[in-house]
Amino acid sequence: VAALSMMNSWNMVSDRWLIIPYAVVLTAMVCCAILRKDKTTSASFKCAILGSVLFMASDNILATLKFHNYKTVWGQIIVMATYYLGQFFITMGAHRHEPAIHHHSS
Prior knowledge:
Blueprint: H1 2-7, H2 19-34, H3 42-67, H4 73-95
Helix pairs in contact: 2-3, 3-4
């Protein structure tokens, strides 16, 4: 998702080589959050997923606004709201983390 959204701005960025690594890092962040399933509490998992998706959305909206030269106050508000909410939920995910307890039958 991040890669496709960022690629939409490909022709508008002079330093194009930066888009792919950044999209990979954003995608890896969401994948790492997904991989936490069954390794932490449900609350921690859900917060981390929500936070990483909101953070990715913030960057994608920001890129769209910047590279397509959209000037809107609402766009800036949405970018900052999704950014701060993303950071909040990522932090809450870390704060609520407890290793999952797996019971093994003997």
